[in-house]
Design a protein that fits this description.
- The structure is a homodimer.
- Chain A contains nine helices and 28 strands.
- By secondary structure, the first copy, chain A, is α/β, with parallel strands linked by helices.
- The first copy, chain A, folds into three domains: about 5-110 and about 265-350, FAD/NAD(P)-binding domain, CATH 3.50.50; about 120-260, FAD/NAD(P)-binding domain (3-Layer(bba) Sandwich); about 350-405, no CATH class.
- In chain A, a hairpin with a 2-residue loop joins β21 (about 290) and β22.
- Chain A starts with a strand and ends in a 6-residue tail after the last helix.
- Chains A and B meet through α4 of A and α4 of B.
- Chains A, B: Pfam families: Pyr_redox_2.
Chain lengths: ~400, ~400
């Protein structure tokens, strides 16, 4: 009897979780497992704000996929997915085609620009290792250039961040810590630097406890960040953002560095492959399978699940991706072995911590509000836990965060 | 009796030499000494190729002027010189005016572009700390951007250097050492990187012994540098250089990084202040005074002196600047004290070493040709000697190069 082919697309939190759990649970003879990823490394999406601000080297936020894969059980293919064809059960990669019996779509997110003009062209994004280090170097180049120009251009020292959600706030926290070092490095007066955050919603960190939001905003303001809340971005230009508070109060914010940190959507390959999706996210069954496709599982940022308590979708996070990956692996084992029932996913919310630099933060953990160094500590625990879940203690030792104090 | 005012313009090799020698030789009551410099630091012009390539941090190539000045004897003024008025014996700075009894012009060099179109606008220069670190960051930004673009632009990985003279060759040596690190940092295939050097003269390192030139060129070629010798730069554009071998053989070299390292001239303030000069260099008397101005001394890159053995000007180097500074200080002491005769300058050529990265080089020292690690060693001795001459053993310990092996 032919072994079934399990193809996992993406080596992010979800995909790697499936691969590492399957290699533990299935014997060599039970299935042929393929893991496909564009890069030969996994990166910690939740640490990219640090690599982007330059407070953590990008090599610290990634590790080789090979280092957590059991080669006897999982075949790693470095290639880019072009299309999924459910009709003939295959995946088209740039370099080859793969047939599957069971497919796991864990392709992650893309920036969502909500149709705002100019964002794709002129704004930097915090999406992956490539974009993070480009942003870091762009900022550094602006500072390096400032003193070498006869006519000083203060917009080189201005960084505007679109979005005061999770990514925006965490990036601002790192940036506020990085700027004094940049000023020292390039002989620049700290007071000439401006960091501005523009958020369309009526509050920063929408969804967070208002007390924690206040803490985060005043912490960042104390470090020099200027907030424009309830202000929409109308357009991104080569010179900065055009924003509006209300319909008439239009303002141009000139800055050489413009960062878009305000939204993600699922991978567009999901839509292009014919799955019914909202912004690249497929409303999956409770077993995590795609509607009408018992052999296709969709997890992580491409999956949409409703939090029935508040009747709104769960936000896409590493935490939920990894829990989905674990359950998805269990269900694949059940299918491969042909006995037992598929499990249904239930999100176990362990809490959320938003960092404000390496030494501060806000969050809710096990239902309890925390701020300050306690939150910063918990953030590192959360970060290390993600490493542990996928790569065990060895990976934690290699890539973990131990600067606790 | 009023103490005479001695004003020294510039804290480069020449100016600092005058200041440090005067503070040793003159008593507090003999003269009022002012040292004017744009920055509060001195930088090692001869090490800038390293800061530009990113092989040595720019803070390593500079030190505070205050750290080598005796504040009881020398008043340091951080300001920019705008004009020298010999008619009323004063210097106009941006922030104030200074009257002098004796003036030392040690304002250093500027890039000479020989009227080549576009160089000032589009080429990077290796002129000072500001330009060096901007160039370093520009190159790094190009490498950082490469992998983040859907359509790969290989010209981001191309660096064209105009000039195979001393600065050009030394910069190429550092660059060739730096590129493998950049490739590793940004996941770039080393073979995609191109370093091209364009030189109008019929040889690299004109004036050097042909055997040493061959050594240098083949060393750099082995490290991947491509030479276009006997090729003139016609124009610099935002896309690269337009070059020509002969009149008709025109070629466009596309590169996102274009460096002009082919020529220097004296400071234009010298000409603008009415001194008769050739490319900003004044043909000084043997006492180093400006023709017709016994109270004005011009030293370093703004001074022109003929090497009578070959009837050509001495090239502007740190070595000659420092020797001139020493003699200039002696002559000022003589003038202040009003007894004795002024000394005449005679260049004591101790040799020249051109580095090819930190571990190789070519040179002539005390009349003997050297190459390889011996030359690299001597280069560091030369670099440390410059520190010693101005700041004594303390400065050598603080800023010296000790990576001899």
């Amino acid at each position: 009897m032919k072994k079934p082919n399990i193809v996992i697309l993406g080596a992010g939190y979800g995909g790697l979780m499936v691969a590492t759990r399957l290699q533990k649970q299935l014997g060599v003879n039970e299935a042929e497992i393929f893991l496909v990823n564009k890069n030969d490394y996994h990166y910690e999406t939740t640490w990219l704000h640090e690599a982007s601000a330059g407070t953590l080297h990008h090599d610290k936020v990634r590790y080789d996929v090979a280092s957590v894969i059991d080669k006897n059980k999982v075949t790693f293919i470095q290639d880019t997915v072009q299309k999924i064809s459910t009709a003939d059960k295959k995946v088209v990669l740039e370099g080859q085609e793969l047939s599957y019996d069971y497919l796991v779509v864990a392709l992650g997110a893309e920036p969502e620009t909500f149709g705002i003009k100019g964002l794709h062209e002129y704004a930097f994004m915090i999406s992956n290792v490539n974009s993070a280090r480009q942003l870091r170097e762009h900022i550094e180049y602006q500072f390096a250039t400032y003193n070498n120009e006869a006519e000083k251009d203060d917009t080189r020292l201005r960084i505007v961040v679109g979005g005061a959600g999770f990514t925006g706030i965490e990036f601002l926290g790192e940036l506020a810590n990085r700027v004094p070092d940049l000023c020292k490095e390039y002989d620049i007066d700290y007071h000439k630097v401006k960091i501005i955050c523009v958020e369309a919603a009526p509050t920063a960190l929408p969804g967070f406890d208002p007390e924690l939001v206040d803490y985060a905003v005043s912490h960042l303001e104390r470090k020099g960040v200027e907030f424009k809340i309830g202000t929409a971005i109308k357009e991104c230009t080569p010179d900065g953002f055009i924003v509006a508070k209300g319909e008439n109060d239009v303002e141009e914010i000139k800055a050489k560095t413009v960062v878009w940190a305000a939204g993600v959507r699922g991978n567009s390959i999901v839509e292009e492959s014919g799955f019914e999706a909202m912004r690249g996210r497929v409303k999956v069954e409770k077993t995590l399978s795609a509607p009408g496709h018992n052999d296709v599982f969709i997890i992580g940022d491409c999956a949409l699940m409703i939090n029935e308590e508040i009747n709104r979708p769960y936000p896409p996070t590493a935490q939920i991706s990894m829990q989905q990956g674990e359950l998805c692996a269990n269900n694949l084992v059940t299918l491969v072995r042909g006995k037992g029932n598929l499990q249904e996913f239930k999100f176990d919310d362990k809490g959320t911590v938003c960092s404000l630099g390496h030494d501060d933060g806000v969050g809710v953990v096990f239902g309890k509000k925390i701020t300050g160094s306690k939150a910063a500590f918990m953030k590192k625990v959360v970060d290390n836990r993600a490493l542990f879940m996928i790569g065990g203690p060895g990976l934690v030792l290699k890539k973990g965060k131990f600067n606790f104090f």
